[in-house]
Structure formats: C-alpha cells, structure tokens
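Hi all, posting the design record for the shared folder.

TITLE: backbone redesign
STEP: 1 of 1
STRUCTURE INPUT:
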C-alpha cells in the first residue's frame, strides 16, 4: 500500500464494517483489473543493493519518477516513500528492503495492463540507467544477506520489523527479501465474492508453483523452487495463510470481519504519527483498549482500512480480492499473472468450470499442497497425479475464459496471448526456478551473478 488511509468517520458497530466490504459489489460491466508488481533494485557495476539515501538511490528514483510523471509525492517523517497518481489511477510504493512497486490503475483489459507495466518500466529505466541502476524480476533476493539488504524509512515497517520475530521465523525475510506479482479483481455480490474467494484459495498454490522463481538465497541454491512460498508458511500465522473458515458454503463478509477483528493490529495513525498497536486486536481497540495511550483512541474507518491492509491471507478481501500467491518474475509474467486469474474468474463459464474442478477439494488437501509446492513445484502429487496435470486443466479453463471475454487489441488478438509464459512452463515441464537452477549448474558455473543480467528489467 503506497499511502495509509485517513478517514475520520467513526465506526459505530460491526455491521458497518461488513457493509464497508460489501460496498465493493459492482456490476460485471464495471469489473476492473489492478496489477501490482515488485522488483529488486541493484547497481549494475557489482549487483549490490541500492540504498535509500544518496545521489544514486531509491529516493533519487522516486524523485526522478515524480518529476517525470507529475504524481504526488507521499512523505513519511520528511522522507519520500511513494507516489500517487492524483486521480487515483495508480501508485508507486516501497517494500521494506527497497523493492520498488507499481500498484497499477484499475483497467478494463489485459492489453491495457501490459501496456501500463511496459510504460512504467520504460520510464523507470530512463531515470535509473544514468545512475547505474537496474531492476531484477525474481521472487526472492538471490544474493544479498539480510544484513546487506537496505532498510526503507517507512514508519509502518519499523513497527512490523519489531513485531515479526515475535510471531514467526520468516517474517523479516518476507518483508525485506521477497517480491511478488499480484492482481486485484472485483466481485458483484457476496455470493460472487464467495465463489471467487474459494476457487482462488484452492488454486493459489498452483499459482505459486507456476510462477516459482526464488531458488537462490545468499548466492546458492536454497533447496526450494519458491523460497517466497515457503516463507509464507511461517511468517505470522495469525494473519496469513488459507483462512479455513472461507471454505464454508455460507462464507460471507461478516465472517471475514469476525476474523479480522481478532487479529492483532500493527498501528494507528494520528496527526501523521504512527502508534504501535501490536499489543491489541481490533476488537479490543473497539472496546477502548487504547484509552489513555493515545488522545484519539476511538476507531475510525481509516483505522479499519489500514488494518485490512495488514492482513496477509493467500487471498485478501478488501473491496476487491487480491491474489497473493505468485513469486515476482520477468516482465512477461507481469502480464501472465493477471491473465491467469482474469481468465478463471471474470468469465461465467470459466468460473463455473473452475468451481466444478475444485468443488470437493478439502481444506486439508489444499493445506498439504501449500506445504509441499515450495519445494516440489508442479511435481507435487495431488490426488494421485502430478500437479502438472491439474495445471493443464486449469490453464485450459483460463484460456477459454479469456477467449470468451473477447477483449481484442488493435491487431485483433485476444487476451489469451498473455498466457504464453505459462504454456512454456507446461511444455518444458519446468518452472522458471528450475530453468535458473539448470543454468546455475551449467552455463553459469555455480554462480548466481548472471541472474542480474539475464532477468533484469
């Protein structure tokens, strides 16, 4: 999230909090696609990480982008930590270790999405190249130790950095040493949200396998295909993972609110200052737990919106659904990830087929898949057959959905063209992580350094 929300509207009761989510309902013709992608920032001279401060730095990139785009700077304690398009059509933000993120505008089709990402990267390169800076598309930092990784001066990250070691073993690696591609998608009703949430929760590990691209840590193979996927198995299990209640046939907005209320908070913002609230849940906050700690201790909708942004289930519910399972990757995958999910969820026939395919998948089966995919990828056995077989079925459904949408570019090509990187994975029976490992053991001669030149933006 580029900018934490300020909305002073008081919260009067829990029903209003569910109504806030339900306000995301919209007619199908107003469905949009919002794509987010993160990338590591490095110096081309020695593949070292780029610090926040200095002439050649993360802050210099942000200032350069602000001058180029005219987007509004986002300031935290005097430091620029992001940019926002003035009419709400996109934002740039920083992850804790300097990962540079575009949160794209809500767009109508995938042709626009791919054009947006290409324009962003082209503009960013104009600013970065004179500084000797480029960008790496991978799911995990392949070389830098935690100590070598920069720290961004962002108040919410200070709070999270102190808190993460208390609730899991890999939270700091998640924050500082991973990158993702995500897509945010709409729903038309509570029932439509339920269907999309359940299908996408069940298939999220398949996305992790298809997009696996984090096989290296600190300069050597880490024994995994998706180190990032494995990190999420023990980051903060109070607020992350599969959320089993969402598998219920009557799951709805109120159920998500009930869960969110009992998750410990990270912070509230008052007069621009962040207050550490990790010692209370939102339910306790509503009951007056912060009285005497902060002057304005009563919750408002800005607090609720910010709290929702600090929950990390595999599919996150706001006024839209966020698909959170994929590693970051090269630029073609920035288009492939939203294509995969739009194809499955935005066409009625495809959603019916995906729902039928996954209907009797149990929480236990899906949880076991989530545990094994980071190491085995598409080679995992699921219901007696390799996950590759399931991937073929699902990709076929996604393709049918994109063809049925019939959103054509100026050359008459539909959106299914963006599935090509996933077709290649299935044709080779190898993920990008496995390609990288083969190169490491072959042409790269046991070095991860070539990854910076071969997978850069």
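Okay, here is what came back for every position:
SEQUENCE:
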């Amino acid at each position: 999230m580029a900018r934490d929300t300020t909305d002073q509207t008081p919260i009067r009761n829990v029903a209003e909090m569910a109504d806030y989510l339900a306000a995301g309902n919209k007619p199908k013709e107003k469905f949009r696609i919002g794509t987010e992608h993160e990338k590591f920032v490095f110096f081309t001279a020695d593949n070292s990480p780029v610090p926040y401060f200095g002439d050649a730095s993360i802050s210099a990139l942000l200032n350069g982008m602000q001058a180029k785009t005219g987007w509004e700077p986002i300031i935290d304690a005097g430091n620029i930590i992001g940019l926002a398009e003035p009419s709400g059509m996109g934002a740039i933000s920083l992850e804790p270790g300097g990962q540079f993120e575009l949160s794209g505008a809500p767009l109508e089709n995938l042709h626009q999405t791919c054009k947006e990402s290409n324009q962003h990267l082209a503009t960013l390169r104009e600013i970065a190249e004179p500084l000797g800076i480029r960008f790496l598309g991978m799911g995990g930092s392949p070389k830098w130790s935690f100590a070598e990784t920069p720290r961004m001066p962002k108040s919410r990250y200070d709070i999270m950095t102190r808190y993460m070691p208390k609730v899991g073993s890999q939270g700091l690696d998640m924050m500082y040493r991973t990158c993702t591609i995500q897509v945010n998608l709409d729903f038309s009703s509570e029932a439509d949200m339920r269907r999309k949430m359940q299908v996408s929760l069940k298939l999220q590990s398949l996305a992790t396998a298809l997009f696996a691209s984090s096989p290296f840590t600190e300069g050597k193979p880490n024994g995994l295909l998706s180190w990032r996927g494995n990190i999420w198995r023990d980051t903060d299990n109070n607020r992350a993972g599969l959320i089993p209640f969402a598998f219920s046939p009557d799951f709805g907005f109120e159920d998500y609110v009930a869960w969110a209320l009992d998750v410990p908070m990270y912070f509230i913002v008052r007069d621009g200052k962040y207050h550490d609230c990790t010692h209370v849940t939102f339910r306790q906050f509503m009951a007056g737990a912060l009285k005497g700690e902060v002057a304005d201790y009563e919750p408002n909708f800005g607090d609720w919106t910010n709290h929702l942004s600090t929950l990390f289930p595999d599919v996150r519910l706001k006024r839209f659904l966020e698909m959170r399972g994929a590693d970051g990757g090269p630029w073609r995958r920035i288009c492939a990830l939203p294509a995969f999910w739009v194809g499955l969820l935005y066409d009625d026939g495809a959603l019916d087929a995906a729902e039928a395919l996954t209907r009797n998948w149990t929480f236990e089966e899906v949880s076991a898949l989530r545990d094994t995919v980071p190491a085995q990828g598409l080679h995992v056995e699921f219901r007696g057959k390799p996950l590759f077989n399931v991937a073929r079925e699902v990709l076929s459904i996604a393709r049918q959905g994109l063809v049925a949408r019939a959103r054509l570019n100026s050359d008459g090509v539909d959106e299914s063209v963006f599935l090509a990187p996933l077709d290649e994975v299935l044709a080779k029976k190898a993920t990008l992580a496995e390609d990288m490992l083969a190169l490491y053991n072959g042409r790269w001669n046991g070095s991860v350094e070539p990854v910076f030149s071969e997978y850069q933006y």
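COMMENT: The chain has a mean pLDDT of 97.
Let me know if anyone wants the other runs.
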